[in-house]
Amino acid sequence: MAKSSSPKPVEELTYEEAFAELETIVNTLEGEQKPLEEAMSLFERGQALVKRCSELLDGAELKVRKLSGDALADFEGEE
Amino acid sequence: MSQPSLFASVTWTVSRLTQHIRTLLESDLVLQDVWVQGEISNLGRPASGHIYFTLKDAGASLRGVMWKGDARRLILPLQDGMEIEAHGRIGVYEPQGQYQFYADIIRPMGEGVLYQEFLRLKAMLEAEGLFDAERKRPIPELPRKIGIVTSATGAALRDMLDTLRRRLPLVEVILAPSPVQGDEAPPRLISALEALNQLEPDVILLARGGGSIEDLWAFNDERVVRAVAASGVPVISGVGHETDFTLCDFAADLRAPTPTAAAELATPITVIDLSAYLQGINTRLAASTLSLLAAQRNGLDASAARLRFSSPLRRIQTDRQRLDEFARRGMSALKHRVALDGSRLQGFERRLEALNPLAVLGRGYAVVTRQADGKLVSRVSQAKSGDILRVRVSDGEFGATVSQDKES
Fold it and tell me: Which of B75, B262, B285, B288 has the fewest CB atoms within 10 Å, i.e. is most exposed?
């Protein structure tokens, strides 16, 4: 939970980061009595994270790169 | 021709007769433990996993079946036209009235050298512990980066990419292309594995589509097998078809029957699972916040009730009530007091009345004053002849004149 210092904007989070933070938030909300204001801001952050995760799931496109020598290049398909 | 007797001593049912034949065949020791050699034809592999075939040579044919459990141990794929030798037993399939060969081992003829080499290498590596179950590492449930070692141009790659795209498009795929057959394949496969290890993917898929035993032989190369075992990243092998086994399969952390299956095993959690889980966690998020809000609301309501109870308004109402009470009591005391004073006043009046000097006039007495100076005449010496006096009686006064001085 080293996120409280300055949480990244959700748009910059990867799916794994967003989901991990979301789980932490839900566990916190379920487990601890937080002051209302803090709880509401956690909830809003959680909602934004859910949205971010959904968008990432819906919009994901398999990224394929090819290793040639030591370099990675985008791989478009069969050559 | 002898004529059959009209009334047979015993007439058998078809089932009974077939059973009898079956018992005869299945009690023959030779037929129950036999090696047979022939060419495979009419090969059938239904979804059940059993394998059906006909074994034939120039003079005869034999129906055969291999059950799924035995078929799983096949090291080489069977093909029509393949010369094989097989071990098994003869049995009868009663519904069809057919005797057939139930095979438990099938191995190709003419590939005996490769096969012997395969067995030798397998035994050696097995003895070294390269295939031990304890060496197998778990496959990550939700990989972010998947390495693939296969031919860049094969159907295997396309199948795997299609499968990954469908199941978990979130992953990043790094392809380390390599020839998958021929003499150059083993060293290239090894360097591809090593290069991928540098990039630390979560799992590596080592794959190749189906082919003959020679086609797949690179995956039985000792150097490649050792490279698979040495990989720091878990490896899933998916080489050939379901019935193909290579030594890489034994060395890999997980064996998949096909390249597509390898991609499936690498993504046990799919985007559909993630969506469902996300939905669930979203529900939990809302529920936990709602219950928190409800708790806060309850607390607030309780505080509001207490606030109302201690409100100045309530105090004012109380005070007003007390004031009314005082007023009522004050008024009543006042009334009492007034009544009391009234009766005392009457008493005074009566007593005052009794003291009124004029009151005696009613009894015949009169008050006499001199008209000249208004002085009360209470002694004879005060009246001289000719003085005018005023005489007051009970109902008024009148004048009088002194006619005579004092009588003596």
Answer: B75
Domain that holds residue B397: 359-401
Q: Do B152 and A78 touch (CB under 8 A)?
A: yes
B172 shares a domain with B132: yes
pTM attached to this predicted model: 0.56
Q: Which residues of B touch A68 (CB under 8 A)?
A: 177
Which residues of B fall within a CB distance of 8 Å from A61? 165, 169
Last residue within a domain, chosen from B110, B136, B160: B110
Contacts of A25 in chain B (CB under 8 A): 285
Predicted confidence (pLDDT) per residue in B149-184, tens digit: 999 998 999 999 999 999 999 999 999 999 999 889
Between strands A63-68 and B172-177, the pairing is: parallel
> Is B278 within the bounds of a domain?
no
Q: Tell me how close the Cα of B191 comes to any Cα of chain A, in angstroms.
A: 10
Q: Are residues B123 and B105 in the same domain?
A: no
- The ipTM estimated for the assembled molecules is 0.80
B53 and B98 belong to one structural domain: yes
CB contacts < 8 A, A to B, total 95
Are B75 and B143 part of one and the same domain? Answer: no
Q: Structurally, how many domains does chain B consist of?
A: 3
Inter-chain residue contact B174 with A65, CB threshold 8 Å: yes
Nearest partner of B245 among B38, B84, B73, judged by Cα: B73
